[in-house]
Amino acid sequence: AEAAELRARLRAVRHTVLVLSGKGGVGKSTFSALLAHGLAADENKQVALLDIDICGPSIPKMMGLEGEQVHQSGSGWSPVYVEENLGVMSVGFLLSSPDDAVIWRGPKKNGLIKQFLRDVDWGEVDYLIVDTPPGTSDEHLSIVQYLSATHIDGAVIVTTPQEVSLQDVRKEINFCRKVKLPIIGVVENMSGFVCPKCKNESQIFPPTTGGAEKMCQNLNVSLLGKVPLDPQIGKSCDRGQSFLAEAPESPATLSYRNIIQRIQEYCEQHHLQEEKIM
């Protein structure tokens, strides 16, 4: 009955993409926010961003929605909209202050994730982007289990070039394979820094073991692209603005556009394959 309920609610969601990372601080929420902005740049696409990082919900701040509240309607919770075609849901909207700590055990977190999927009135959605917390535990198992009632196109895994981060990403890839979650590919974030004045490139996080590229070759996973460090990304996120719109000519924006295009192509292909099977 529960699966049927979730299926009915998410029937109008065409593509679902999970954004994962093994380690915190690699820019996963930033990537989720910019992926949503990038997809929503096409006004004909309806995009939804679901933040299931229950203890560290940073999506409301990044999307310029801090202080917003969730509204209840006859058909469930209404997402908070950034644009007409970009809706957001996060535990951050349920807290009385952005500084409130969420001190919950697993079952309560799982209950809220289920509620987000079952009770939010997303409507017709082309892309549902799910921003997850770091790691491979409760929230990840719950979202994969609940969404298996419908379908998941796959996961995008975000890393930085250094071995400390890649070590945890290998665990994340193993997690995906164990729970039969397709991997769309890996994004190497903070990949080099080009000085805006002298144009010299520096490796802030040196790829001592060959970075994400080598790891992807070894594990037979696609590398979707590398996003260089750009201080403007952090500033845009703090202001709740889309970096892609604020710095359209930046090398990081061009990299994001290529990555977003590859994700879209993967999802369309995945959709066609599913239709053939059905």
UniProtKB/TrEMBL annotation:
GO molecular function terms noted in the UniProt entry: 4 iron, 4 sulfur cluster binding; ATP binding; ATP-dependent FeS chaperone activity; metal ion binding
Matching InterPro entries: AAA+_ATPase, Mrp-like_CS, Mrp/NBP35_ATP-bd, P-loop_NTPase, YlxH/NBP35
Highest taxon listed in the record's lineage: Eukaryota
Subcellular locations according to the entry: Cytoplasm; Nucleus
GO biological process per UniProt: iron-sulfur cluster assembly
Domain AAA+ ATPase stretches: 14-185
GO CC term, one of those recorded: nucleus
Pfam families named in the record: ParA
Keyword match GTP-binding: no
Chief location category: cytoplasm
Coiled coil: none
Gene3D superfamilies: P-loop containing nucleotide triphosphate hydrolases
Keywords of this entry: 4Fe-4S, ATP-binding, Cytoplasm, Iron, Iron-sulfur, Metal-binding, Nucleotide-binding
Biological function: Component of the cytosolic iron-sulfur (Fe/S) protein assembly (CIA) machinery. Required for maturation of extramitochondrial Fe-S proteins. The NUBP1-NUBP2 heterotetramer forms a Fe-S scaffold complex, mediating the de novo assembly of an Fe-S cluster and its transfer to target apoproteins. Implicated in the regulation of centrosome duplication. Negatively regulates cilium formation and structure.
HAMAP family: Mrp_NBP35
Protein's name according to its UniProt entry: NUBP1 factor
Organism: Helopsaltes ochotensis (Middendorff's grasshopper-warbler)
